[in-house]
Design goal:
Blueprint (H helix, E strand, L loop, with lengths): L12 H18 L5 H14 L10 H14 L4 H9 L1 H26 L3 H8 L4 H11 L3 H25 L18 H20 L5 H15 L9 H17 L3 H4 L3 H30 L3 H8 L4 H10 L4 H28 L14
Helix pairs in contact: 1-2, 2-11, 3-9, 3-10, 3-11, 3-15, 5-6, 5-13, 5-16, 6-7, 6-8, 7-8, 7-16, 8-13, 9-10, 13-14, 14-16, 15-16
């Protein structure tokens, strides 16, 4: 469910994909595009994938997530943790509003894709590809349609949101969410990477969602908060993690992975654009103004993209990274806890209709 379907790539496909991803990512980064490494790798890999010539090693994304988790967690010094904790009411409100935004967008998806209401709901909630696919399966929704919609929206967000946020990013940096990091040390970095990989394995064994990123992030948060971080994670390693995530996402945008008809893809793209461009952006700006938090950082925290993608966007734009990460971490937890109950409440209140069996969106 979480991995794109496999096919037999040509023997040189791995090298070709890597070289083109590096070239495209480096070009977009050089011209100053936010998240250039990720966007370039995603577009180039998708371009190759549509020709059956792309191949990405399965370990690449989890390895990139380990690095990214460590890089994001290192900013959680004790003062920053205190600042994030004081923002918890706004973070909780943002998570609930994100789910409600998905509920509001779901009828549009259902109408265009001719989908049943349940599938449309799980397709529209901005909870991440894997999380929403798992929840959709438990709820009896059409998992393939939900996966396609979440993938398309993720691509739309990665392509548009960093550039849009960069335009209004003035004032998004807040000293309360910034921290002085220890210097870079090869030995300390090697130890940190080894411990991060071990934490990811233990997290996966324990059933932690998105363990490859969250477990190393929690480890780095603990070390940073206690002043025991042995080394900082340098920018070039974060860029390499961007490259890995972009290539992995690009492989999901191939015909083998997407499937479905054009109406479904159009519905997913339109619903994503609506959620990103209007509803969640306005809610984020309003919540930031009411709470006194940096509005641009709150917008990025409520963006309907994945946690890794939006957190690395915040890092690239030097926006309150711990705050943005806090929004996405809490939203992931709230999606697991509240998506099902909110759906049942909406049914009880008549906000959505129970479709006849023949209208199920497959």
């Amino acid at each position: 469910m979480s991995d794109p379907p496999s096919y037999a790539p040509p023997p040189d496909a791995y090298l070709r994909t890597l070289l083109l991803a590096v070239l495209a990512g480096g070009l977009l980064n050089t011209i100053g595009l936010p998240l250039g490494w990720m966007v370039g790798a995603m577009l180039s890999t998708a371009w190759l994938g549509w020709r059956g010539a792309a191949a990405v090693p399965k370990f690449l994304r989890p390895a990139g997530l380990v690095v990214l988790g460590l890089g994001l967690g290192q900013g959680f010094t004790a003062p920053v943790m205190a600042a994030v904790a004081s923002s918890l009411p706004a973070i909780l409100a943002g998570g609930v509003l994100s789910i409600l935004a998905g509920l509001a967008v779901a009828p549009l998806y259902a109408r265009i894709a001719r989908s049943d209401a349940r599938t449309a709901y799980y397709a529209a909630i901005p909870g991440g590809i894997v999380t929403m696919a798992v929840l959709a399966q438990r709820a009896g929704a059409a998992v393939s349609a939900v996966t396609v919609a979440q993938t398309i929206r993720m691509a739309v967000v990665v392509l548009t949101f960093p550039a849009l946020v960069a335009v209004i990013a003035v004032g998004g940096r807040d000293a309360a969410f910034s921290a002085a990091l220890p210097g870079f040390a090869w030995g300390g970095m090697a130890l940190l990477l080894a411990c991060g990989a071990l934490a990811a394995l233990l997290g996966a064994w324990a059933g932690l969602a998105n363990a490859a990123m969250i477990a190393p992030c929690l480890l780095a948060m603990g070390l940073s908060g206690s002043g025991l971080l042995p080394s900082s994670i340098p920018r070039w390693m974060v860029d390499a993690a961007q490259l890995a995530m972009g290539a992995s996402l690009g492989l999901r945008l191939t015909p083998q992975s997407l499937g479905g008809g054009p109406r479904r893809l159009a519905a997913a793209g339109l619903a994503s654009a609506l959620a990103v461009g209007v509803l969640l952006a306005l809610l984020g700006l309003g919540l930031g103004w009411l709470s006194g938090l940096p509005p641009v950082a709150v917008v990025l925290g409520m963006a309907p993209g994945g946690m890794p993608e939006m957190a690395v966007t915040a890092k690239a734009l030097d926006l309150a990274v711990p705050l943005v990460l806090g929004f996405h971490l809490v939203r992931t937890v709230l999606c697991n806890l509240l998506v099902g109950p909110i759906w049942r409440l909406a049914l009880a209140l008549g906000l959505v209709r129970r479709p006849p069996p023949e209208d199920h969106g497959g």
